[in-house]
Amino acid sequence: MGTSQKDILTKIMVLIMVFTSTVAGREMFTEQPTNLHKINNDYPYLTIATHNVGKIALTVTNFGVIGNAGYNIPDPITGYASPSLSYPQGYGLNYLSSSSLWVGAVAGPDTLVSAGNNIGWGDLNEYFPFPYPEGDIIFRSNNDPEAPEYEGAVSNQDFISTYYDTFTEFTGVDYFSGETHNPLGLKVIQRSYAWGYDYAEDFILFDYSIVNIGNKNLEDVYIGIYVDNDCGVDNTFSSHDDICGFLKSAPSQYIDGLVDTVDIAWAADNDADPNQAGNLQGIRSPTSVIGTKILRTPADSVHFTFNWWVSNFFETSINWGPRKQPTGQESVRTFLGVLGTPFTDADKYYVMSQNEFDYNQEFTMNDHSHLGWLPPPEEAAAIANGADIRYLLSCGPFDFKKGEVLPFTFAIVGGQDFYYQNFRINPFGYVNFRNPSDLALNTVWATWVYDNPGYDTDGDGFKGKYYIKIYDSIFDPNIGEWVASVAETLYYKGDGVPDFRGATPPPPPKFKLYPRITEMNTGEIEIRWNGRITETSLDQFSQRADFEGYRIYISISERDEDFVLVTSHDIENYDRWEYHHGFFRWELRGQPYDIRTLKAMYGENFNPLEYFDHDHIITVYNETLGDYEGFYFTRHDWNQSDYRDTTGIHKVYPDQPYPSTFDLDSAAMFYPDELTEEGELKYFEYRYVLRDLLISMPYYISVTTFDHGYPERQLSPQETSPTTNAIKELAQNSATIVEDNILDVYVYPNPYRVDANYDERFEGWEYPDRPKEYNRALNFGNLPHKCTIRIFSLDGDLIREIHHDKDPGDPMSSYEKWDMISRNTQYVVGGIYYYSVESRFGTQVGKFVIIR
Fold first, then answer.
1. What pLDDT, on a 0 to 100 scale, did the predictor assign at position 188?
2. What is the pLDDT of residue 330?
3. Which of 92, 549, 581, 743 suits 409 as a labelling partner, its CA being 20 to 30 A distant?
4. Which segments of 573-660 are extended strands (E)?
């Protein structure tokens, strides 16, 4: 949706702003929202949520729209404008204006379509939720088994909303038909799922349950997902140069020689916006592609269509889309005189039900008349090179009885490096190359997470489609044919029953931070956690406890890519390699073996590091095979598992034996010595200390967990994202420590030198990207959480008064910053100043010097 269309959308924005004005200040998904505005419960409660745990940051709503549709509704959690679809997130790139569900049906003499954001040209939304709280979006997450949002969670980030097409009093009059909305009588339950793991961070799954709550059966029903992308750099005129198409298949990246059926509609910028020199700008250029993949329809035997068109009211000759030649005596049907945008319900239903599958936009200049299409338009070259395109994926027809529920599932999938430069071909500039391999791979994974290959979900004995890869064969004289002697079964498709399940790392632990200042005036933060739940949880994909280790990360921002690995700790375990005589190769199979298991298998004195490659193997007689087998071992991860090394992640109770029971109630009754004062098992208590930290720099700290991986699926070890449980903390004495010990307030730097260039030294209180006149900072530490700071001149004049009032648990509870501006909004001069800090603990007085 381009900037030129915003005037046409004014009436939509006014309606949406009426409802969403209550959202900006609300902290969504908390048990007791702190800034909830009082709303009129007679009105639908319109709100949004943002998926942001993977590479895709995507806005979803409870009124039938995906993306922010240009409304710029604030994210209820951050208060900032919500990203429509940022990919990879954090780099100022957008790939979606809006997307919405369309449901069309024949209702008597009429053909009706209920839609969210219909076509982006002035028509109103037709789905609305109930008032608050029934209409609110529900949040669930499988990150923390003890959190209230864990029950029923499918992914790291579930959003569930319910809306209806029956709130006709709020839809207004259609801009083009002049008619009010005629509902079909639908209730829609929308579930969206996002994961932060490396194999699943490039897609989001949407699962709909569409319920006929009307008083009549619906006939010839079609369901579609409408998409308006607008790919490009944020806040630029990016809508008029998109291209789209449909990718049917791609070479398998897991099974040599096979071709994966992909079946995904895609859209991208037409050239990734090279600069004047013809070069791309790396990660900040729109080189990615975004696609939509339908995963489930209400029935298998339906028509499946892909249709695209260009929307342009200022040049109606470009408002065009591919269309088949009419048959018989029919004439070419136009939509208000154009072949592109379907404006009315009848137009939309026509597109959904025509059973046409369009060719890719880049082929618009080609004459497809011999295949039954209308000839290309005069503007074919311009359209093929990029335009303001929309597309629609549809399926149907269905009969939809009263009370019936129709399922509909699709995925939004991203692929990076769709555009790339090949300087070997043209070293002097940009060459337009496209590579859909990453989109294809991520689409395969989206399909696998939706329906796990090789997993019998419903217990009927069918695990899905598979391919038998033959490595060797022998001649069987009994049948006179060559038969496979060595083969491998590789599943590539599930059993048709949705799983919505992927391999997940163990849940990250809940940890606590204990900041302090050392005697050397450097900052430290101690990290403490208990790993009982983390280390004993079963992976929902393999149904095994596959905990491997912990990692500590630190950052000065919340962005995932800014987190830096500090240290790692993993259990001592080894991968066992065995020689497969049929395949003539060494293979890694199964899960890694921990050292206790290996010693039980091969003897207490067994050292796997003595058998480290195929020239140094251990030979074991296999009674089942009646032959000897050879193995060698390699470390799984680093085996950095010294529980006593206090410079790394270490156990608080290194001599504590393995627990007698994991049940805390039983332990409290029968084994109380195995529990900490907080009632947790001592065996799983860990500690790490971050040292030599800047005392004025707030840090984001995270403890992540990772698993073994899943070699049978060629799945690398999975790790939780550092952003999942990151905590912000300042490396200073907490207000609790200050108040318990009545510590002295201090000021730094003291003296403050105006010419010291503190911003260049990056000590945390002044920043290099700000003008110096707005960047001065004098810092107060060891403050009570609630106090008043007064700054006086040497003559006793009050220069500035600062009211410090923080929650005791706030990272900034014992810290305050003065910008060196007086209460008269003037820069202070050099000299000696006094300060007082007044609190319920008394008054402290000190002085500092400013040198200019």
1. 98
2. 81
3. 92
4. 573-580, 585-588, 593-594, 618-622, 627-635, 650-651
Q: Which domains does the chain have, with CATH numbers?
A: 3-437 (no CATH), 457-497 (no CATH), 511-571+640-730 (2.60.40), 573-634 (no CATH), 735-851 (2.60.40.3080)
In sequence order, what are the beta bridge partners of 105? Answer: 112
Q: What token pair was written down for 338?
A: 């154009």
Annotate 811-837 with DSSP letters as a single string.
Answer: TTTT-EEE-SB-TTS-BPPSEEEEEEE
**Which among 641, 846, 87, 103 has a CA at the least distance from the CA of 414?**
87
The amino acid that residue 461 corresponds to is G
Q: Cβ(183)–Cβ(169) under 8 Å?
A: no
Identify the pLDDT of residue 581: 66
C-alpha span between 36 and 32 (Å, rounded) = 9
Grouping H, G, I as helix, E, B as strand and the rest as coil, residue 798 is: strand
Under 8 Å between Cβ of 652 and 644: no
| Among candidate residues 7, 135, 163, the one with its CA nearest the CA of residue 70 | 7
Neighbouring C-beta atoms of residue 172, cutoff 10 Å: 16
Amino acid at 186: L
The alpha carbon dihedral of 746, 747, 749, 753 has a sign of: negative
**pLDDT score of 38 more than 70:** no
- d(CA 488, CA 504) in angstroms, rounded, equals 26
Cβ atoms of 638 and 592 within 8 Å: the answer is: no
Beta strands 816-818 and 778-781 are antiparallel
**Is 0.70 topped by the overall pTM?**
no
**Least trusted range by pLDDT, from 3-12, 204-213, 775-784:** 3-12
Q: DSSP letter for 12, please.
A: H
Contact 678, 529 (CB under 8 A): no
Residue percentage of the chain with pLDDT more than 70: 86
Residue type, 776: R
Using a 10 angstrom Cβ sphere, with 0-12 exposed, 13-18 middle and 19 or more buried, the burial of residue 745 is: buried
At residue 608, the 3 state secondary structure works out as helix
Pair 27, 20: CB distance under 8 Å = no
Cα-based angle 606, 609, 614 (whole degrees, multiple of 5): 110
Say whether pLDDT at 31 is over 70.
no
Distance between CA 475 and CA 16 in Å, rounded?
73
Per residue in 416-449, pLDDT (tens digit) is: 989 876 554 455 544 557 889 999 999 999 999 9
How does strand 218-228 pair with strand 752-753? Answer: unpaired
In DSSP terms, 780 is beta-bridged to 747, 816
Interval 557-576 mean pLDDT: 89
- Give the integer Cα–Cα distance in Å for 639 and 658: 19
Amino acid at 152: G
Please give the structure tokens belonging to residue 322. Answer: 């591919």
Nearest to 770 by CA among 780, 782, 778, 762: 762
Residue 33 makes CB contacts below 8 A (sequence gap 6+) with 26, 27
Closest CA to 732 of 800, 817, 664, 673: 817
Over 50: is that where the pLDDT of 493 sits?
A: yes
